[in-house]
Design goal:
Layout: H1 13-27, E1 31-42, E2 48-53, E3 58-63, H2 65-69, E4 79-90, E5 95-108, H3 110-124, E6 142-147, H4 152-164, E7 168-173, H5 181-194, E8 206-211, H6 225-233, E9 238-242, H7 250-254, E10 257-258, H8 262-269, H9 273-308, H10 312-329, H11 332-375, H12 380-423, H13 425-430, E11 435-437, E12 455-460, E13 463-470, E14 473-475
């Protein structure tokens, strides 16, 4: 079949691209454009690649390294500028762009102006006040994260939490860019605050609102009033981690803390577990050393104080000596002798008392008779009555004096008898002690005073038993030893 013939010229792709390039450059060889800078990228070569836009269109722009270095300001996203240059195409991508030869700022961009106006409005309402910001919990049990479930942000947060101090994380998935993003983010903040634990989902102790970097348009949802007001009204402490360190959104001002990156938010939320353990161990070691120093100091003080007090031997020495002297004077033989002397004195006193009473009675009678003789004619009956009354009174006095003297002597005698009973060996034996005598009847006062094989006599409170000393042990002859039962009534000698 024959080829179809056409009068339309045929171009290759390159020829058509170059033709378009020449056409655009000829028509727009020099243009002056006003717009807002969007994406601004400085390549390693030093060339600047940017977007010049308004509310309806976007034009790519390129500014070569030599011209960039001569700018007296730094091109930043959101800045409104006026650019001069020529329009051309890039055949490799079939795109047209403006080669910028001159750039100067034209004032704040429309978005930045809106952002500043909104910031002033919300600040005037007190939403950014430092006094209303809440402290972040030192070690939260549950962390709520509001971000996209598919991005690298959630992975970075979880990885950093695992490295520092693993915690329970609740993810509320939301869009972080686009028209519906602001509504979802505000709803997520309110939803976390509405949790009360009754539904089985624990209430977070801290919230993290996070997103990666992007342009002003990409991050604009975090500048919306609904998001800012939800962050300010949150009862749960909130950390904002939107964009990179140089990016700033209005939620950063309303949040309780701002993190430069999502990873930084995880670092703010929890401490480092290893550092805490090391700190606790250090504090424990310091506490042990402090206690050891305190004990040593108190022991030194106690020893210094103890040296200032007299020893037990010094305190008890005089008392022991007085006890030995008293015991020497209160031996049974001495007590018996003292009691005999006192009894003899008491009997002699009684005899003397009776003799005195007789003499006193006779003297009274003689006195009565003498009074009767002196009275002469006085009535004998009256004189006799008076004499009897005087004699009776005198006898009563003598009797009272004698009774009192006898009671005093009896009290002294009872006291001596009591001491004899208390300190006598019979009382000691009743308290569980025993007297050991050798075959000659002498007391054995020391274990060294008797050897093995000798017979001894052991006197108890209720009788006496014979025993033989064998191998330093005392045994009763011809009788089986009985197991000693301790007496609950047995006391101490002193």
């Amino acid at each position: 079949m024959a080829e179809s013939e056409s009068n339309t010229p045929e171009f290759s792709v390159s020829e058509l691209a170059q033709s378009l390039k020449r056409t655009v450059e000829d028509a727009y060889g020099h243009v002056r454009v006003r717009g807002e800078l969007g994406r601004v990228t400085i390549a390693r070569s030093g060339h600047a690649y940017l977007d010049l836009k308004d509310d309806k269109a976007v034009i790519d722009g390129v500014m070569w390294k030599g011209l960039v270095s001569r700018l007296n300001f730094k091109p930043e996203e959101g800045l409104e500028v006026v650019c001069e240059g020529k329009l051309t195409t890039y055949p490799g991508r079939s795109k047209y762009q403006i080669i910028i030869e001159r750039m100067e700022p034209a004032g704040a961009g429309a978005l930045m102006a809106l952002l500043e106006e909104r910031k002033r409005k919300l600040a005037a309402e007190g939403l950014f006040e430092a006094a209303r910001k809440r402290p972040i919990p030192f070690l939260p049990k549950v962390i709520g994260v509001i971000t996209s479930p598919t991005g690298a942000v959630i992975r970075d947060i979880l990885h950093r939490l695992d490295d520092r101090f693993p915690r329970h994380v609740l993810l509320w998935p939301v869009l972080v860019q686009g028209d519906q993003a602001a509504t979802q983010i505000a709803a997520a903040i309110d939803g976390f605050n509405a949790l009360d634990g009754a539904s089985g989902i624990p209430r977070p102790d801290v919230l993290i609102v996070a997103r990666g970097g992007g342009s002003v348009e990409d991050l604009w949802c975090f500048n919306e009033e609904s998001v800012v007001r939800a962050a300010a009204a949150s009862d749960i402490p909130l950390i904002s981690a939107v964009g990179h360190e140089t990016d700033t959104t209005l939620i950063d001002f309303a949040a309780d803390r701002r993190a430069p990156t999502p990873t930084g938010a995880a670092e703010i939320a929890v401490p480092v577990r290893a550092e805490l353990m090391q700190q606790v161990e250090g504090q424990g070691s310091r506490l042990k050393r402090g206690l050891a120093r305190l004990v040593a100091h108190r022991m030194s003080e106690f020893k210094a104080t103890a040296r200032a007090f007299p020893t037990a031997q010094t305190l008890l020495g005089p008392s022991r000596q007085r006890l030995d002297l008293a015991a020497t004077g209160l031996r049974p033989e001495a007590l018996r002798r003292d009691i005999g002397i006192k009894a003899e004195r008491l009997a002699s006193f009684g005899q003397r008392l009776e003799a005195g009473a007789g003499r006193l009675s006779r003297a009274g009678n003689e006195r009565v008779q003498a009074i009767g003789l002196r009275l002469g004619r006085a009535s004998p009956q009256r004189q006799l009555e008076r004499s009897r009354e005087a004699l009776t009174h005198l006898l009563r006095r003598v009797q009272r004096a004698g009774d009192q003297a006898i009671r005093l002597k009896q009290r002294d005698l009872n006291a001596i008898a009591g001491r004899h009973v208390l300190l006598g060996h019979e009382s000691v034996l009743r308290r569980g002690f025993a007297l050991v005598r050798n075959t000659e009847g002498h007391l054995v006062r020391s274990a060294k005073g008797i050897g093995g094989g000798e017979r001894v006599s052991i006197q108890f409170a209720d009788g006496r038993q014979e025993a033989v000393i064998e191998n330093g042990q005392s045994q009763k002859p011809r009788s089986r030893p009985r197991k000693a039962v301790p007496s609950e009534k047995q006391g101490r000698l002193f």
